[in-house]
Specification:
single chain; alpha/beta; TIM Barrel; 3-stranded antiparallel beta sheet; 13 strands; 23% strand
């Protein structure tokens, strides 16, 4: 197998701001795995929050010795960091689907009609700009509103005055437990579906305290990196957010999904700001989850790849082999 890894810059439609950072360009890495006349596509979006970097992910993958068996997942992925594992894992799944001439959802035995609707994320911005973004969303049925820099109640009230669909909120670890309960009690009248990661990760008992007092369900993100994190959250939250870039790709995501189901958690499938490769890979698992936040393609100004589409917000999976992701023939040599 021949592996190449190259960085990919994705300009964004709008500056994307969450409680701890802002970006105008998302940087990911595209993995190409060639074998037996086929090419598998993968992607990783390393998350600095977990000590990962694009440079380390690329260097680690370029140094990997692969051999000639794309089905040897355990050996091929052993010892990689989650970001490195994510890129190679997705490329392997794409390559195997192409070898077998079947879409990934079919190899996993899933029903493409059971995909959920995806939310569209509204980043933090001045109120007038936030409302302009919400109006730009139009009739999309679900939005996720980033909070955590103040004016939370006024922001959600203003959004609800112009938007009738489902609203989720995400504080990205910005609040204290007491602030969380106070804010969510106020926001409950606006029919908020759930609140994602209100407080800094690492304090399950504080999440339990919040959950016992909050009128709005609590979902983790930063507290649920991979399947090993979930036992500590039992009884503390209502759901978890699974991201391929956090947990090491499709195999890691499946481990999280099955562990979460065994523990009675609801499950959201999320993404970073990324191209259609990574978003589409996650989308193939979406028939297994309750909620989706797979909106990477909404946020980028230019994406060199084509994958999933949406029908009134509902994810439509491609039916080509592997991931079913396509790119213009001239985009690489």
């Amino acid at each position: 197998m021949q592996l190449t890894v190259e960085p990919l810059d994705l300009p964004l439609k709008h500056t994307f701001t969450i409680a701890r950072s802002s970006e105008n360009i998302a940087r990911t890495a595209v993995v190409r795995l060639r074998w037996n006349g086929l090419e598998g596509l993968g992607e990783t979006a390393p998350i600095p929050r977990y000590g990962e970097s694009l440079e380390n992910a690329i260097a680690g993958l370029r140094a990997r010795r692969l051999g000639d068996d794309p089905y040897a997942f355990e050996r091929l992925l052993d010892g990689l960091s989650p970001a490195q594992m994510c890129g190679l894992d997705i490329a392997l799944h794409d390559l195997i689907g192409k070898d077998l001439d079947r879409p990934l959802w079919r190899l996993l035995g899933l029903d493409p009609a059971r995909t959920p609707r995806s939310s569209f994320t509204i980043g933090i911005a001045p109120l007038a700009e936030t409302l302009a973004k919400v109006r730009e969303v139009g009739t999309h049925p679900v939005i996720k509103v980033k909070l955590g820099k103040g004016a939370e109640i006024e922001t959600v009230e203003a959004i609800r005055s112009v938007y009738a669909g489902t609203i989720r909120v995400d504080a990205n670890e910005a609040w204290t437990p007491e602030q969380t309960v106070e804010i969510l009690t106020e926001l409950a009248k606006h029919a908020i579906e759930f609140c994602e990661q209100p407080i800094p990760a690492g304090s399950p008992e504080k999440l339990r305290w919040i959950r016992e007092r909050s009128p709005i369900p609590i979902v983790t993100d930063e507290d649920s990196k991979d399947a090993r994190d979930l036992p500590a959250l039992f009884g503390c939250v209502d759901g978890i957010n699974v991201k391929l870039a956090k947990c090491g790709g499709i195999r890691g995501a499946l481990a999280m999904i099955h562990t979460a189901r065994a523990m009675g958690f609801k499950i959201m499938l999320g993404c970073m700001v990324e191209s259609q490769i990574l978003t589409t890979a996650a989308a193939h698992l979406s028939p297994l989850v309750d909620w989706a936040d797979l909106d990477g393609p909404f946020l980028t100004a230019r994406d060199p790849f084509a994958g999933i589409t949406y029908a009134d917000g509902k994810i439509v999976l491609p039916d080509g082999p592997g991931l079913g992701v396509r790119e213009p023939a001239a985009s690489h040599s």
